[in-house]
C-alpha cells in the first residue's frame, strides 16, 4: 500500500504513515478551524518534501487572498507555480463558468497531471449548483409547466453536481482532499450529508472556546485500508501552519 504523506507534524502517524494513494479524503470542519491551511500545507509539503505536483481548486476565496494567506505562513505559492509544481485555480459564482467547470477541471487534471488535489470546498460548489438550478427554474417560469416538470429540482441538482465532481476526482490518480463545511450542530460529517459516504476518508476539525482559550481538536473518523489511531488530538495553528500535539 503506497502512502501519501501530508508532512503535517503529528498527523501521518495517526493513519499508518499517510493517506492511501489515490484516495479521496474529506476534510470537514467548522468555519475558521483551519481547513484551508491544512489543505494548502498538504500541497506545499507535497512539492517541497516529496516532489509531488499539487492542484488547488478553490470556490471559496479569490486568488489574491489565497496567495496572501499562504505568504503569511511562509509559503510562496507563486514561486511554486513558476516552477510548474503547483497550480491554483479559482472560480466565482457565474453561470457561464459553472456549466463548464467540471469539464474544465477534468481537462486541467489530464494536462497538469497533479499528484495531489485540493478542492475548497465541496459545500460552496454545491451551493453554486443549487443557486444555478433555482435560476434555471425561474427562467423557465414563462413556459408551460409540463415543459419544466422533468427538470431537476435544486436539491437534486446539488447532489448530482457533488456526486459528479467526486466521481471525477476519484477516477484519476491523484490523492485528493475535499474540504467541507461543518455546521455548528449536526450529526452528519459534512454540510451536504453525502460527501462523507462518497469519500474514502474523513478528517474532522473542531474548536471549542474554554474560558479565554480556544481548544482545537482533530479526529480521523474514517480512512479506508488504514488502522486509525483514533480519538481526538489537540492541534494548533502556528506561524508555520498546523501542528498536532503529540499524544494530545
Ligand atoms: N499565523 C497564524 N497564527 C495562528 N493562527 C492563525 C494564523 N493564520 C491563521 N490562523 C488561524 O486560522 C484560521 C483560519 O484558517 P483557515 O482559513 O484555514 O480556516 P477554514 O477552516 O478554511 O475557514 P473557512 O470555513 O472560513 O474557510 C483563523 O481563524 C485563525 O484562527
Ligand atoms: Mg477555508
From TrEMBL:
SUPFAM superfamilies: P-loop containing nucleoside triphosphate hydrolases. InterPro entries: KaiC-like_dom, KaiC_dom, P-loop_NTPase. Signal peptide: none annotated. The keyword Mitochondrion does not apply. GO terms for molecular function: ATP binding. Gene3D superfamilies: P-loop containing nucleotide triphosphate hydrolases (3.40.50.300). This is KaiC domain-containing protein.
Amino acid at each position: 500500500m503506497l502512502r501519501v504523506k501530508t508532512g503535517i507534524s503529528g498527523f501521518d502517524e495517526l493513519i499508518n504513515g499517510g493517506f492511501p494513494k489515490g484516495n479521496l479524503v474529506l476534510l470537514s470542519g467548522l468555519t475558521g478551524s483551519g481547513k484551508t491551511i491544512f489543505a494548502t500545507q498538504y500541497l506545499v509539503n507535497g512539492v517541497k518534501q516529496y516532489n509531488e505536483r499539487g492542484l488547488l481548486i478553490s470556490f471559496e476565496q479569490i486568488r489574491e487572498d489565497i496567495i496572501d494567506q499562504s505568504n503569511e505562513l511562509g509559503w510562496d505559492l507563486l514561486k511554486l507555480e513558476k516552477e510548474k509544481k503547483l497550480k491554483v485555480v479559482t472560480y466565482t459564482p457565474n453561470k457561464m463558468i459553472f456549466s463548464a467547470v467540471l469539464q474544465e477541471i477534468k481537462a486541467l487534471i489530464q494536462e497538469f497531471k497533479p499528484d495531489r488535489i485540493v478542492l475548497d470546498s465541496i459545500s460552496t460548489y454545491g451551493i453554486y449548483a443549487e443557486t444555478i438550478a433555482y435560476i434555471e427554474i425561474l427562467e423557465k417560469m414563462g413556459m408551460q409547466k409540463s415543459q419544466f416538470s422533468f427538470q431537476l429540482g435544486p436539491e437534486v441538482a446539488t447532489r448530482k453536481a457533488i456526486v459528479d465532481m467526486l466521481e471525477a476526482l476519484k477516477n484519476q490518480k491523484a490523492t485528493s482532499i475535499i474540504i467541507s463545511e461543518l455546521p455548528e450542530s449536526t450529526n452528519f460529517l459534512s454540510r451536504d450529508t453525502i460527501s462523507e459516504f462518497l469519500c474514502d476518508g474523513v478528517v474532522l476539525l473542531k474548536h471549542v472556546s474554554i474560558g479565554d482559550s480556544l481548544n482545537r481538536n482533530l479526529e480521523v473518523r474514517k480512512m479506508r485500508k488504514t488502522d486509525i489511531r483514533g480519538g481526538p488530538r489537540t492541534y494548533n495553528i502556528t506561524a508555520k501552519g498546523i501542528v498536532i500535539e503529540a499524544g494530545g
